[in-house]
Amino acid sequence: MTHRETDSDTANPYRQQLLKAGVPEAMHDMLRHHGVGDLVEKMEITFLELTRDRVVATMPVRGNTQVTGLLHGGAHVVLAETLGSFAAGIHAGLGSRQALGIEIGASHHRAATEGLVVGTCTPIHLGRTLTTHEIVMTDEQGRRLSTVRMTNMIKDTKLPQPDKRSSE
Fold first, then answer.
1. 14-167: which CATH topology?
2. Of 10, 40, 55, 111, which residue has the fewest beta carbons closer than 10 angstroms?
3. Residue ranges of the Thioesterase domain (predicted)?
4. What is the pLDDT of residues 72-83, one digit of tens each?
5. What is the set of active-site residues?
6. Which residues of the chain have pLDDT under 70?
7. Residue 146 contacts residue 83 (beta carbons within 8 Å)
8. How many CA atoms are closer than 13 Å to the CA of 21, on its beta-carbon side?
9. Other beta carbons within 10 Å of 91
10. CA nearest to 55, candidates 32, 35, 27, 16
11. Domain ranges of the chain
């Protein structure tokens, strides 16, 4: 163990990534196998709230623009899909269920050229096998930038199994 690692870092190799992204420590165990993903880091998405009924995060406009200096429409969708996926994953719960995005649609209402985008995800439908969420992106003044609707399928999946060779 190096001087920068802690026992918590060894138990969860994504701990530092999760902390940087603002993920509450209570959710670290749920994300111990994959963290928040490289794209969340690249887009500098930071979570402010993570519950079954509401997921909120910010993303800077800077670094996520198209050539004209406007926030890229795809960046809106990346933020929305991240929030919708996390919300559906929380609904699916810990264990052997996984949320998989199956549909997403976005309407862009206003451009942004600076500051932070705030994404707020709320459920429209929370079923046993499907979830649908509305994700609203606003600027720091609360003006709506885009509206996204996302549907996730909830399916049973196998969790990663420990490497048997390491215990021999």
1. Thiol Ester Dehydrase; Chain A (3.10.129)
2. 10
3. 69-144
4. 999 999 999 999
5. 81
6. 1-10, 94-95, 158-168
7. no
8. 27
9. 19
10. 27
11. 14-167
